[in-house]
Automatic annotation (TrEMBL):
It comes from the Eukaryota. It is a single-pass type I membrane protein. The keyword Transferase applies. This is Non-specific serine/threonine protein kinase. GO terms for cellular component: membrane. One of its GO terms (molecular function) is protein serine/threonine kinase activity. Keywords: Kinase, Serine/threonine-protein kinase, Transferase. It is found in: Membrane. The lineage of its organism: Eukaryota, Viridiplantae, Streptophyta, Embryophyta, Tracheophyta. Pfam families: LRR_1.
Amino acid sequence: MFSDLTRNYLSGTIPPQWGSMEHLRNISLIGNRLNGSIPKELGNISTLQTLTVEDNMMSGIIPEELGNLSSIERLFFNSNFFTGELPASFAKLTTMKEFRIGGNNFSGKIPDFIGQWRSLESLRIQASGLEGPIPSNITLLESLTDLRISDLRGRDTPIPPISSTTRFKNLILRSCNLIGQLPESLAPQNLKVLLVI
C-alpha cells in the first residue's frame, strides 16, 4: 500500500491515525505546506519502507518511536524546521539505504550509529544544524556511493579516512571544518563528483 501525496498544497498536520495502517509501505508528502511534528504513531508501521516529508514547514523533534521502523529504507526529513538531536533509537534502523536531513535546525553531533547502517547507499547531511566531527565509520561504509555533508558546526577536525574500496560516485564535504593533508584514498575509482571545501 502506498500513500503518495507529493507536490500539492496540503496544509495541517500528519494524522496520528496513519500509524494504524498495517500494510503501508510508502508515505510521500514531498513539497506540501504541512506543519507540526511527525506523529510518534508512525513508528507502529512495521512494513514502512519509505517516509519522505521533505520540503514542508514541519517542526519539533523526531520521535524516538521511529526507531521501531524495522523495514525502513528511506527517511527524507530535509528542508523543514526540525530541532533536537537525532534519536538514539535510530541505531536499530539497519535496513536504511538513503537518509537525508539537510536544511533543518538539529542539534548535537553526527551520531556514530550511522556507521552501523551497513546497507546505506546515500547520506545527505547538508546545513542540518549538526556538529562535527564526521564519524570515521561512516566514510568506511562499503555500500555508500553518495555522501554529502556540509556546514557543520563545531571545532576543526581531521579529515575522516576514506577507504580505497569505497564505491563513492559523489563525495561532497563542504564547510566541515576539516584540517590536515589530503589523503591519497580520497579519489576512489568510481568517483564522478569530488568537492572538499
